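Write out a record, fold above all:
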Amino acid sequence: MLSDSIKAGDTLKPLHIEVTEQMVKKYGEVSGDFNPIHFEDRAAKEKGFQAKIIHGMLSMAIASNIVEPFLQEGYWVKSYEMKFRAPVLVGETITIEGTIASMEKESASIDIVVSSQTYPQVAKSKILLHVYK
């Protein structure tokens, strides 16, 4: 079990994920969110953005990939909250970094910071994991 080898303060291996046009298109299809700010530069610029931005919930979904090793070890996501601080532009690579806030026998709390090439901090989140029984 991971809890034997990981302790509070440990950092997780950072992830670097490019958010492609295809990912945004697929997310739009699944979510039903076809707001033009996600698909047209002109519409995004009219709303004050530099270019097309990805869906906030897509950012959240991508960031959750950092806990994949825990999920493979029998943990499940008990709660997940994210505070969005800046948009992610379509085509950018985001960096996801995680730090173990606490590690117990059957649970883990992980603090996550998401950044992009444009913004040093796109979002901050906390994921609470629990051992699946």
In short: The chain is about 25% helix and 30% strand. The mean pLDDT is 95.
